[in-house]
Design goal:
The complex is a heterodimer. Chain A has helices at 15-18, 29-32, 44-47, 68-75, 88-96, 105-110, 140-148, 151-159, and strands spanning 4-8, 53-56, 80-83, 101-103, 116-120, 125-128, 131-134. Chain A is of the alpha/beta class. Chain A has one domain (4-159): Aconitase, domain 4. In chain A, strands 4-3-2-1-5-6-7 form a 7-stranded mixed sheet. The longest helix of chain A has 9 residues, at 88-96. By secondary structure, chain B is an alpha/beta fold. Chain B folds into 2 domains: 12-251 and 263-271, Aconitase, domain 3 (2-Layer Sandwich); 281-428, 2-Layer Sandwich (Aconitase, domain 3), CATH 3.30.499. In chain B, the strands form 5 sheets. In chain B, strands 4-3-2-5-6 form a 5-stranded parallel sheet. In chain B, helix 6 (183-194) packs parallel to helix 7, helix 11 packs across helix 13 (352-359) and helix 11 (313-323) packs parallel to helix 14. Chain B starts with 12 loop residues before the first helix and ends with a helix. The chains are: A alpha/beta, B alpha/beta. Chains A and B meet through helix 4, helix 5 and helix 8 of A and helix 2, helix 3 and helix 5 of B.
Chain lengths: 160, 433
């Protein structure tokens, strides 16, 4: 994916900011999408284009286990989330629903809101302002789940 | 020489619980293990997605219906038609899959308070819950881990799930807390010290000579917020108080675990309980820990006493000791929510609910309610709350321009009386005006 836009946020972006609690009685992707990042960046849903990238600092996705948060991000058309580090449950949730998440502290340091970036999801490489960045590789099990497109297809495939 | 030949010695409590529940049996920190939990816990916000994912997976029959506990607590009682549909989905799931442990309609409470109370978790046990505060179980020498909905759909389907066994941080408690210093103050002080990712991907293990000075309710308050430091799980050492608790609750599935004297810890943190003071977590994060003395005079619009960390009898008795002699300030909305049906009835028998209602509090049956901004006490723009809950992120309890200070029940009740953050000791000594 070439020339997509960076939506850059800070450290400790919690899941209440990504998808506020008042919407937790919703669960379908299309119902959650209009509220994505509502607590942090109310303009996000009007700005975002398919393929764009969300970038955060350390401990991205901290707080509530709500899977509604990565579902809303994926439904918005975001191709992947890149952060310095992720909170454990958010990380698993994103992988499980087939939203790629990459730890790449060097890239995070250089990225600004509105930057244009090239993204290669399969290899975890990114080109930002002429510089190439390589994310840390996934453990085998996570690689397999992502390759299948998420935990549901992964399990369905295994049991067939 | 092979490292994997080490015997069962030098293991943490977490490693022991995970090893006992793993298919591999001999797993250690850092290993990927396939775990068969004793309990799988679902609620009405996470359970909807789990139900939808099970359908997508084509699962007609779950691996072990007796392993599953379904609790409707978040938007309970349903606040609107959408929420009622969620509860209905879970009831249908329970019926279709043969899940007997469905706690609905005033028979249950908030999941993490309910589970230990009804003897479904206890020493040596392991629970996977589709809720981040599943770590609350750690207070009883068990291990609880929070997950998202799809992971739990996988557990329901297969009866097991992969996890990476975490390294442990040992929290060594000594001494006795001063008056008005509670479990809440202890965990807020720890999170303030190590930060909201200070225990990322680790287990917190609590023990030491000071542990006996904390009652089980206070340990629940501490265990509940382990996740606010990023921890995967937490485990408290077993003692006489836990033994008494499980004699009443009826838990007998596993034996207690003890840490080996040479267990390996990522780090050890010493907490001298007698040096702590009452603290609050100021917005916008549970790690923004401030001494009570720094926040005196902060104006308050709402006070909320309840939730899965601090809706216990200990909390309600603390609140009642203030509200017995003082009315809630007219401008303040005080909401009090006992965490389970059993706690509600006990509080009723002790006359506490009447004390609360007479003082001007709104008293509710158990629900997660306003803690997560769901219902039953939402904040308007510009409003400030003091709450005994576990999160104070921006907009957590309502409008993005509202604020939440996390505090113990003494401090919360005192704030409701004065309309501002104040020293609860003043209201205990003060005669009724």
């Amino acid at each position: 994916m070439k020339n997509v836009t960076v939506h850059r946020y800070g450290h400790d972006i919690n899941t209440d900011l990504i998808l506020p609690g008042q919407y937790l009685n919703l669960y379908k992707a299309e119902d959650l999408k209009p509220h994505c990042l509502e607590g942090l960046d109310p303009e996000f849903t009007t700005r975002v284009q398919v393929g764009d990238v969300v970038i955060g600092g350390k401990n991205f996705g901290t707080g509530s286990s709500r899977e509604h948060a990565p579902i809303a991000i994926k439904a918005s058309g975001i191709s992947c989330v890149i952060a310095t580090s992720f909170a454990r449950i958010f990380y698993r949730n994103a992988i499980n629903i087939g939203l790629p998440v990459f730890e790449c502290p060097e890239l995070v340091e250089h990225a600004k809101m509105g930057d244009i970036i090239d993204v290669d999801i399969a290899s975890g490489t990114f080109i930002l302002n002429g510089t190439s960045f390589q994310a840390q590789p996934f453990p085998a099990i996570i690689h397999e789940i992502l390759k299948a497109g998420g935990l549901v297809p992964y399990i369905s495939r295994k049991t067939v | 020489m092979s490292l994997s030949t080490t015997s069962s010695a030098s293991m943490t409590m977490t490693e022991k619980i995970y090893a006992a529940h793993s298919k591999e049996k001999n797993v250690r920190s850092g290993d990927i293990a396939i775990i068969v939990p004793d309990v799988v816990l679902l609620n009405d916000t996470s359970g909807t997605i789990t139900t939808a994912q099970l359908k997508l997976m084509g699962v007609k029959k779950i691996a072990n219906p007796d392993q599953v506990v379904v609790v409707t607590d978040h938007f309970y009682p349903p606040k609107d038609i959408t929420s009622a549909n969620s509860v209905s989905m879970l009831k249908n799931l329970s019926r279709d899959m043969g899940i007997k442990h469905l706690y609905d309609s005033g028979r249950g409470g908030i999941e993490h308070a309910l589970l230990p109370e009804i003897g479904l978790i206890g020493p040596g046990g392991l629970v996977f819950g589709a809720d981040s505060h599943t770590c609350t179980a750690g207070a009883l020498n068990a291990s609880g881990m929070g997950f998202g909905s799809t992971d739990l759909a996988a557990v329901l389907a297969a009866g097991e799930l992969w996890v990476k066994v975490p390294p442990s941080i040992r929290i060594e408690l000594s001494g006795k807390p001063k008056p008005y210093v509670t479990g809440k103050d202890i965990i807020l002080s720890i999170i303030g010290q190590i930060g909201c990712d200070g225990a990322l991907n680790t287990a917190l293990e609590f023990g030491g000579s000071g542990l006996g000075n904390l009652n089980i309710d206070e340990r629940f308050a501490i265990a509940n917020m382990a996740v606010e430091a990023g921890a995967e799980t937490c485990v408290f050492e077993f003692d006489e108080q836990v033994k008494d608790y499980i004699e009443r609750s009826g838990w007998n599935q596993h034996s207690p675990v003890y840490p080996d004297h040479d267990a390996q810890y990522q780090s050890v943190i010493h907490i001298a309980l007698d040096t702590l003071q009452p603290v609050l977590a100021a917005p916008p994060s549970p790690d923004n820990c401030k001494p009570l003395t720094e926040l005196l005079g902060t104006k308050v619009d709402q006070v909320y006493i309840g939730n899965c960390s601090n809706g216990t009898m200990t909390d309600l008795r603390q609140a009642a000791s203030i509200l017995r002699n003082h009315d809630v300030k007219a401008e303040v909305r005080l909401v009090i929510v006992p965490a389970t049906n059993k706690i509600y009835r006990q509080a009723s028998q002790e006359g506490l609910l009447d004390i609360f209602a007479r003082a001007g509090a709104f008293v509710s049956m158990p629900t997660c309610g306003a803690c997560f901004g769901g219902h039953m006490g939402i904040l308007a723009a510009g409003e400030t709350a003091v709450a005994t809950t576990n999160r104070n992120f921006r907009g957590r309890m309502g409008h993005v321009d509202s604020q939440v200070f996390l505090a113990n029940a003494w401090v919360a009740a005192a704030a409701a009386v004065r309309g501002e953050i104040c020293d609860p000791a003043l209201l205990i000594l003060e005669p009724q005006p």
